[in-house]
Amino acid sequence: MTICIATSNFPPQTGGIATFYKHLAKLLVKEGHIVIVLMADENKEKKDEVVTTDGFKIILLRERYQALRSQYAPYFASGGLDAPGWIAAGMAMKDWLMYNHNSYDIDIIEVSDYGGMGIFLKTANLPPVVVTGHGTFTQLSRYNIVKEDDQTAIIRRLELLSLQKADAVIAHSPSNQADLAQLSGRVIEFATAPWMSKTKTITSTSHKVIFAAGGLQKVKGAITLAAAINSCANQSEQVEASWAGGDTFTAPGATRMSEYLEKEFPAVWNKQFTWLKELSHAELMTKMAEAEMVVIPSEWETLSYVALEAAAMGKPIILTATTGIVYLFEQEETALIVPANDPRQLALAILRLQNDASLRERLGSNAAAMINRVFIEKKITDGRINLYQRTIREKQPTTEANSDELQFLKKYITPGRKYFYTFKAMLKKILRNH
């Protein structure tokens, strides 16, 4: 079978989505399938490129994507959610697939849910489309603080259309499966997350440190962890934590999270609570290996590859009850599970784990054993291929009635909006220079 993965995140990018698709591509290739990764690339200096690595091809769409982005950008305010970028990505991917899917003999397209790219690919004459539930903007906006405007409205609608019109939607945790079903009003498939099931227990040999990773954003629990570390410091407890991940504008007032944490927690920010900024995956794994424990303080998360990576290392883990991967963990046996958005309970769990070496060893050992028991590579791959094959068999033809879902975008592409935002950008530039 030939699978096309259409995504905005893939290594060397970091994060859960990139890690997910790396594991998926490698597992599929290992079982003899053909994988093509299709990406809209931000590099304006280079032309389109085909990169072959680990037995699969990565198609980097640059020229068409950048041309479309430039075409749509003048109709919107600069900054924000970048609706022009998501529209351009979806259209560029569609154009490439319409021209190439037969020559590459593509059987099915799997596309990530964030940004709503899937609806652009759900057209006649293209293979079936499967949307993967990694966390839509709509879901994340329940927790992150965002500024609502016409760009957020567009992304919400594109995402909902993608979920509703796709030939299948896959979730990888029961909680996200239920959430997407409620959001879309349709049946959501469940599959075990792709994972190359190798474990190697690594015990910290450095000073005591708590490690967290992910975008420095509200939904990931950055404020909760900072407050917990601050609480420990107020009690004169010696606790050190580090966070790896890029900054975001998800703090109160839609401001930078790093600036908010520095202002609200000056006693611990970049002291007991160190921000490492964004690291490469190799650097992130090194920091995790050095840590005495790993904390996932998310207010909400569809899965959490950080938890899987930590468990595979045999690290003791603290995670919240609203982290999707929690369904695989058992309280007091494979992890300590705490309520979300509760700094006090998180601080108590951190102190308990820091002061109990036998508990750390037991939780880490049991977590590694769970990884080996649950994530059996061939079983994961066979389950996904069976889902693909069923989707292909049950694919409904795209009719004229459901092929015009993107017509709503026309109301945003008007001469009046282009004039207004072009003039506004020009005025802003003049004021900035004076």
What would you say this structure looks like, in words?
With 434 residues, the chain is α/β, with parallel strands linked by helices. The chain has two domains: 2-195 and 381-433, Rossmann fold, CATH 3.40.50; 210-374, Glycogen Phosphorylase B (Rossmann fold, 3-Layer(aba) Sandwich). It is built from 15 helices and 14 strands. The chain has an eight-stranded mixed sheet, with helices on both faces. The longest helix has 19 residues, at 415-433. The protein is globular. 47% of the residues are buried. The mean pLDDT is 92.
Record the SSE blueprint.
Blueprint lengths: L1 E5 L9 H15 L3 E7 L8 E5 L2 E6 L1 H10 L10 H18 L7 E5 L5 H4 L7 E4 L4 H4 L9 H16 L2 E4 L2 H11 L4 E2 L19 E4 L8 H13 L6 E4 L12 H8 L8 E5 L3 H10 L2 E4 L8 H8 L4 E4 L15 E3 L4 H12 L2 H18 L2 H18 L20 H19 L1
Parallel strand pairs: 1-2, 1-5, 2-4, 5-6, 6-7, 7-8, 9-10, 9-12, 10-11, 12-13, 13-14
Antiparallel strand pairs: 3-4
CATH superfamily of the largest domain: Glycogen Phosphorylase B
Instruction: Quote the distance from N terminus to C terminus.
Output: 59 Å
Report the biggest beta sheet as strand number plus sense, adding barrel if it closes.
8 strands, mixed
Strand content: 5-15%
- Topology as a string of helices (H) and strands (E): EHEEEHHEHEHHEHEEHEHEHEHEEHHHH
Mean pLDDT, all residues: 92
Counting DSSP E segments of at least 2 residues, the number of strands comes to 14
CATH class of the largest domain: Alpha Beta
Overall 3D form: globular
Indicate the percent of residues in helices. Answer: 40-55%
- Provide the number of structural domains: 2
Radius of gyration: 22 Å
Number of alpha- plus pi-helical segments: 15
Going across the biggest sheet, name each strand in turn: 3-4-2-1-5-6-7-8
Give the uncertain stretches in residue-range form: none
Overall SS class: alpha/beta
Which fold name fills CATH's third level, the topology of the largest domain? Rossmann fold
CATH architecture annotation of the largest domain: 3-Layer(aba) Sandwich
